[in-house]
Write a structure and sequence with these properties.
By secondary structure, the chain is α/β, with parallel strands linked by helices. It is 16% helix and 28% strand. The chain has 4 helices and 12 strands; from the N terminus they run βββαβαββββαββαββ. The termini are far apart.
């Protein structure tokens, strides 16, 4: 494991293990505002695509979901995710992809792995080959999906018939028309009958996530 896990006394998750670098004053925690904007019910199966250490998976399992499917491709991050597993969570050490690839290269970031990506190789610290699963297969039983995959979201056929809610973080990709892709995807989601709960403004790196529900 590249970093020692630190326990976080979190009101959101009930407490979990997270990463902390030597230079930071506290462990890294994700912004959960958009994730918590979708109210879950006891029949929901949630797919957490890009689960990282599992903050949303833990929150969902404690706040109404019937089951949570947590997908995280990074080997050392998956170790922390496994330490944070709740009884309703099923863990999968796979990258979720938009095609039928069985393995893909995961580009590893220089920090704590929050920006590891199968889509972006700029400023990364090498790569590792990981198992892959097609998006449609990964979420076939899900009613709610949360997607945070550092640019791979543009390769997914995000809208699937069984989904009632989508939480999606868009990511800039250097020298690519990513914002046009993002706006087109938002239009497609809303044309499919999903109503915006929170809409990304793209004003900063903290305003790239949106949520929609039917």
């Amino acid at each position: 494991m590249r970093f020692s896990p630190v326990f976080v006394d979190s009101k959101v998750t009930g407490g979990h293990y997270a990463f902390q670098t030597k230079k930071s004053l506290k462990p890294f925690e994700n912004n959960m505002r958009e994730c918590k904007s979708i109210e879950l019910n006891d029949s929901d199966i949630v797919a957490d695509i890009g689960a990282y250490v599992g903050e949303y998976s833990m929150w969902a399992s404690k706040n109404g979901a019937k089951k949570v499917l947590s997908y995280e491709p990074t080997p050392y991050t998956f170790e922390i995710l496994s330490m944070n597993k709740h009884s309703k969570m099923e863990l999968f050490n796979f990258a979720v992809v938009g095609d039928d690839s069985k393995y893909v290269n995961l580009f590893i970031s220089k920090g704590i792995g929050a920006t590891n990506s199968i889509a972006k190789s700029h400023s990364k610290a090498g790569s590792v080959k990981v198992k892959a699963i097609r998006y449609e297969e990964a979420i076939k039983d899900a009613t709610v999906v949360k997607i945070e995959v550092e640019g791979a979201e543009y390769t997914y056929d995000v809208i699937q018939p069984q989904l009632r809610a989508i939480i999606l973080e868009f990511h800039p990709i250097s020298q690519k028309p990513w914002k046009t892709w993002a706006l087109n995807l938002i239009k497609k989601i809303e044309n499919a009958g999903f109503k915006p709960v929170m809409t990304p403004t793209f004003n900063s790196g903290w305003s790239l996530t949106g949520s929609w529900e039917k």
